[in-house]
Amino acid sequence: MSLKIIVLAKQVPDTRNVGKDAMTAEGTVNRAALPAIFNPEDLNALEQALQLKEQNPGTTISLLTMGPPRAAEIIREGLFRGADGGVLLTDRAFAGADTLATSYALACAVKAMGEFDLILGGRQAIDGDTAQVGPQVAEKLNIAQVTYAEKIEKIENGESTIKRRLERGVEVVKAKLPLVVTVNGTADECRPRNAKLIQKYKYAKTNSEKQNIDVSEQALYEKRPYLNLTEWSVKDVEADLEQVGLSGSPTKVKRIENVIFQAKESKQISDSDNDSEELVKELIANHTIG
Amino acid sequence: MNNLFVYCEIEDGIIADVSLELLTKGRSLANQLNCKLEALVIGSNLQGVEKQIFPYGADTVYLVDDARLYPYTSLPHTSVLIKLFKEQKPQICLMGATSIGRDLGPRVSSALHSGLTADCTSLEIGPHEEKKAGKVYENLLYQIRPAFGGNIVATIVNPECRPQMATVREGVMKKEIFDKNHQGTVVNLKASDYVSDSDFVVDVIERHMEKSKVNIKGSPIIIAGGYGMGSKENFKLLFDLAGTIGAEVGASRAAVDAGFVDHDRQIGQTGVTVRPKLYIACGISGQIQHIAGMQESSMIIAINNDENAPINTIADYVITGNVEDVIPKLIKYYKKNSK
After folding, report:
1. How far lies A223's CA from each of A43, A208, A210, A216, in Å?
2. Is there a contact between B252 and B271 (Cβ–Cβ < 8 Å)?
3. What are phi and psi of B289, to 5 degrees?
4. What's the burial of A193, exposed, middle or buried (CB within 10 Å: 0-12/13-18/19+)?
């Protein structure tokens, strides 16, 4: 059975290794110093989609991402790894969205993309760690959800068998399509980019990215329509302006503080035998250990 | 009406620790707001389960008991919350940031268009002014959580939408008996009034749950290793020391991501929060997200070969040196000096 799969993906700042150079002198985060990457668990989700495509000939995979114009990089990255197409949802009106306004916008885009069997996405994005967008998109589309998936074992006769990895155990569930599935980082790692696909798609661009190209380059995009990446605005997905961006967000950020910890007066100890023994004796004497 | 709800998780007839922790927090918030604390349990064979909940101060326990409601699946539990919240109009709903709460919370918040803040590390009550709209709100729930990989802390409010929803990880709030003789009201809700047959679209066909093997949260001494430990093999040193002095081994996110130890040992904003008597940080540089999960330890010893490691600023003792050299010495001198 061929499937129509949509993979939700997000471009995120790499918050996992915030080094000293990523902090400004005032102690704030210098976002520009952090590389923008494909959200790691979204890559796990893409791999599940690619495996399903191998098992179910005729399956197509479309990526859907929301972000600034440069998030088109995410679509290309997906194409390099075997996706068939993608949509970038970009509009200033989406700015400042919380998870609910984000999910509403994504659900509008999914509806505009037409029929689908399965929506996959990472469990959560590393810049927010909320894990909310998957279930909220499912609710907005009024379809079921399976979160914390580690492996989509099979899809037969419109029914999926999915292994979930929970905090304290494992579950295998059966669920009918259509379905939203969010995938854990414990799932199979995404395959690398394919050299042939890089050759094929390296000039793939959105309209915004094609603004300054010359006539000869334009001819390339007419000759090879698959190089034209879809870029949609609020209007294109018929979203209600009241429900997107800041105005569509029930949560408001009241305050942002940099984290500063109260420094203590520390006692410096060498790694010598003598100092080590003195420390251990002290800890035993004051009943901290022993 | 206008009360504070805690969604209680249940496994093998036992209410989850995280739910009892939230009831404890919920009791103090409800006192501040002068409202009732209400607990909701959805599952199967729930008779008598209220006895586990009342000591934590709940005024009402709602029970929805039906064989099909255990184990948890998303849609039936979501349906109960949506309908009950439309009837009861709570001002606040708290749930655990667990694989259940993080599946259920977002779905409910989407259906009710109420804001949800995930993984809060602190909850407070306070006023809020929306300057543009010229409106002032009293007694909002401040949902305080780390953001951006733990480098900033954000205070989130939901001025207009109800309930104000938040999830909190296990171990972040303290669990304390309110009054062991406290009694409240039990309300049995009929499952069929809240759940429809069409909600049962996901079948759990296999399930293996384990009791947590490690009890980092309850250990008075924790030896934690970071990325600086370098390898899984070097972590064995920490287990040796832990075995010698009677401690548990914890780890930073970087060490877990590197595969040195399992995720259930992770300490920090995305792991557990701990408050031991003694915390020995080995090869941990001290990213904010880690420090936030252990800074309330009574005594902190940092062992690191980088004398400028951020963790040193919050440590009581700083040993600058290689962990591989220092740990065997600590083991040796403990054996020599302990009775």
Report:
1. 30, 19, 15, 11
2. no
3. -65, -25
4. middle
C-alpha radius of gyration, chain A, whole number? 24
Q: Given a cut of 60, is residue A28 above it in pLDDT? A: no
CB–CB of B320 and A271 under 8 A? yes
User: What's the pLDDT tens digit per position in A195-224?
Assistant: 999 999 999 999 999 998 888 889 999 999
B51 CA to chain A: closest CA distance, Å? 25
Instruction: Give contacts of A 9-68 with B, CB under 8 A.
Output: 13, 15-16, 18, 23, 28-29
Between A152-166, A240-254, A256-270, the lowest mean confidence (pLDDT) is in A256-270
Using DSSP's 3-state secondary structure scheme, residue A38 falls into: strand
Q: Which of A171, A264, A280 sits opposite B330 (nearest CB)?
A: A280
Distance CA A212, CA A118 (A): 37
Is the bond into B163 cis (omega within 30 degrees of 0)? yes
3-state percent helix, strand, coil for chain B, nearest multiple of 5: 30, 30, 35
Q: Which amino acid is at B204?
A: V
Which candidate, A93, A86, A102, places its Cα nearest to that of A140?
A102
C-alpha B143/C-alpha B166 separation (Å) is 7
pLDDT digits (tens, 9 = 90+) for B302-338: 999 998 888 998 999 999 999 999 999 999 999 999 8
| Lowest pLDDT segment from A115-124, B83-92, B246-255 | B246-255
Domain B221-337, second-level architecture = 3-Layer(aba) Sandwich (3.40)
The alpha carbon of residue A179 is apart from the nearest alpha carbon of chain B, in Å, by 10
CB of A11 closer than 8 Å to CB of A89: no
Instruction: Give chain A's domain count.
Output: 1
Collapsing DSSP to helix, strand or coil, A173 comes out as strand
How far is Cα B184 from Cα B23, in angstroms, rounded to an integer? 13
Q: Which sequence spans correspond to the domains of chain B?
A: 4-119+157-199, 221-337
Whether the pLDDT of residue A14 is over 90: the answer is: no
Question: If you search the block for the tokens 């400028």, which residue do you land on?
Answer: B308
Q: Does B125 touch chain A (CB under 8 A)?
A: no
Cα B77 from Cα B59, distance rounded (Å):
22
As a whole number of angstroms, the distance between CA B126 and CA B137 comes to 9
Residues 6 or more apart whose Cβ sits within 8 Å of residue B13? B45, B49
Determine whether the interchain pair B292/A259 forms a contact, defined as Cβ–Cβ distance below 8 Å: yes
Cβ within 8 Å of residue B54, ≥6 positions away: B61, B182, B183, B184
Please give the ipTM for the structure prediction: 0.90
Helices vs strands, H then E, count in chain B: 9, 18
The whole-angstrom separation of Cα A98 and Cα A109 is 17
- Tell me which residue of A183, A162, A122, A103 sits closest to B202, measured CA to CA: A162
Q: What is the pLDDT of residues B18-54, one digit of tens each?
A: 999 999 999 999 999 999 999 999 999 999 999 999 9
Residue, of A19 and B262, whose pLDDT is higher: B262
**DSSP 8-state code for residue B211:** -
Candidates 3.30.70.920, 3.50.50.60, 3.20.20.140, 3.40.50.620; correct CATH number of B4-119+157-199? Answer: 3.40.50.620
Helix (H, G, I), strand (E, B) or coil at B41: strand
Check CB contact of B258 with chain A, cutoff 8 Å: no
Rounded to two decimals, the pTM is 0.88
Token pair recorded at residue B151: 């480098």
Q: Indicate whether A288 belongs to any domain.
A: no
Please answer yes or no on whether A131 and B295 come within 8 Å at the CB atom.
no
